[in-house]
Each structure stands twice: as structure tokens, then as C-alpha cells.
Task: inverse folding
């Protein structure tokens, strides 16, 4: 699992990457230990796996947001019959006027290319005594005939008083495909989709995080106080590469 490099750690020593991908001290001495997730056997010289730098295509996007319950009342619905499951350029202007922008992010294709994913929400029905039904639309790529808006195959139900979605799935397959033909998944953390009052009448995106990464470089290698060898990459992400053997920790400090 990756974490943002902004997280503070107590760094014990700065390490370097050797020409062969080996992890070494600043004096070019190898750091020995165990690869992350495998502490069996004798310690060996640690190596940064090359696939940590090669592109990894996005497969899932974690998504959380709050839909507007303006002034404590359900929003004016847009009749679902007005909008089919696919919105092409001919009806896009009407769709954009009636829907709520809900974030955009870059997903990574199989070759490391960045492709923009956009999201919008439409309130398709609402009743002050029952609640509201919302539908999410997504677009993958830029404008043009080949990049229409597509409705996610699930309607999200909220109580009239607001609160969390009553039927949010843990994840759902998106109705768009990447250039290499893959389907992406939208993942909703528990309680992540809500509908509460918002005076601005806007969708507030609280999480929109795709997995995967484009081709990148190592920005920093460090040995932490808990013996973890951590790589921080040029895209701001980090990963534990391995666990250093105790004597390797002493050697790195001395360097």
C-alpha cells in the first residue's frame, strides 16, 4: 500500500540506489535484509524491484463525496427520462446545465499515459417525505464523439432528511473502457457517500484517488528507525521496500 510522502517519519539514514538497482549506503555499501512481506531465510542485499518504477495502470478509483441537500430540502429533480444512459455531444449542453460537477482525476493507461476521468451527478427523483435518488455519470478522456458521458449502472438512494447513501455498493464497474479495453472500478469507502445541507448547492468531493502510477523515479531512499527501508518516488508516493538487518542499520548510520 502506498502512502503520501508528506507523512512525517523519523529518518535514521539516507540511502542510495546503486547502478544495478541495489540499495546501498552513501559509501556504496550494500544494505542487507529481507524484501517487504517476506522475512523468511537469511538476509540478502536489498534491491529495488524495477516494476516499482515502471507504469502501473489504474484499476480502481476510491471516491467519496457529499451531495447537496440545499437549505435542508431535497433538490429539484431532473426527470431521468430526459437523459439516457449515454450523453453525446448533441445533448451535452443540457446535461451539463442540469447536473452537478463532481470531480476529475487522471487515471493511468497501460502505457503510462494519463487519461482524464470526470464525474457528474444528476438528481433523478426527489420527494420531501421519502427522499431522493441520484445517478452518477462519468466520462473518460476529452471531448468528442468517442468520449460521451455514461451513467453508472446504479442509482443511489438517500433519505429526505439527508445522511449516508442507503444502498451504496462497496465497488462498482464503470461503464467506460481505457484505450486498451480495461474496465475501471469505482470504490466507495464505508459511509463515503452522503447527502447533507450545503448552502452553496454543490457536490463536495472528499476523496478521489486512483491507484496505479505513471513512469517515475526514486526521489529518496531512507532507513527508518523501525528498520524499514522506504522509497519515496517522484510522484510523491512512498513504499516500504524491505526490512534491514540490524547490522545493516549500524552500517548505514556510520556512513
Result:
Amino acid at each position: 500500500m502506498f502512502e503520501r510522502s508528506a507523512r512525517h517519519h523519523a529518518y535514521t539514514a539516507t540511502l542510495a540506489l546503486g547502478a544495478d538497482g541495489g540499495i546501498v549506503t552513501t559509501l556504496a555499501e550494500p544494505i542487507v535484509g529481507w524484501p517487504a512481506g517476506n522475512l523468511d531465510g537469511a538476509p540478502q542485499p536489498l534491491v529495488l524491484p524495477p516494476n516499482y518504477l515502471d507504469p502501473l495502470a489504474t484499476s480502481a478509483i476510491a471516491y467519496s463525496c457529499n451531495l447537496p441537500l440545499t437549505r435542508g430540502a431535497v433538490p429539484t429533480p431532473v426527470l431521468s427520462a430526459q437523459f439516457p444512459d449515454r450523453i453525446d455531444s448533441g445533448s451535452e449542453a443540457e446535461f451539463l446545465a442540469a447536473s452537478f460537477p463532481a470531480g476529475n482525476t487522471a487515471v493511468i493507461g497501460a502505457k503510462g499515459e494519463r487519461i482524464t476521468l470526470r464525474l457528474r451527478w444528476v438528481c433523478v427523483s426527489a420527494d420531501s417525505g421519502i427522499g431522493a435518488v441520484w445517478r452518477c455519470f462519468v466520462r473518460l478522456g476529452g471531448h468528442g464523439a468517442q468520449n460521451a458521458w455514461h451513467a453508472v449502472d446504479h442509482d443511489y438512494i438517500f433519505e429526505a432528511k439527508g445522511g449516508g447513501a442507503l444502498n451504496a455498493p462497496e465497488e462498482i464497474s464503470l461503464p467506460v473502457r481505457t484505450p486498451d479495453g480495461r474496465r475501471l472500478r469505482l470504490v466507495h469507502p464505508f459511509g463515503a457517500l452522503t447527502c447533507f445541507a450545503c448552502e452553496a448547492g454543490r457536490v463536495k468531493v472528499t476523496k478521489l484517488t486512483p491507484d496505479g502510477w505513471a513512469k517515475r523515479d526514486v526521489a529518496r531512499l531512507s532507513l527508518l528507525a523501525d528498520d524499514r527501508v522506504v522509497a519515496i518516488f517522484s510522484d510523491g508516493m512512498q513504499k516500504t521496500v524491505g526490512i534491514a538487518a540490524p547490522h545493516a542499520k549500524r552500517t548505514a548510520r556510520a556512513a
Observations:
- The first helix runs from residue 89 to 98.
- The longest strand covers residues 114-127.
- The helical segments are 89-98, 246-254.
- The chain has two domains: 3-53+216-254, 60-210.
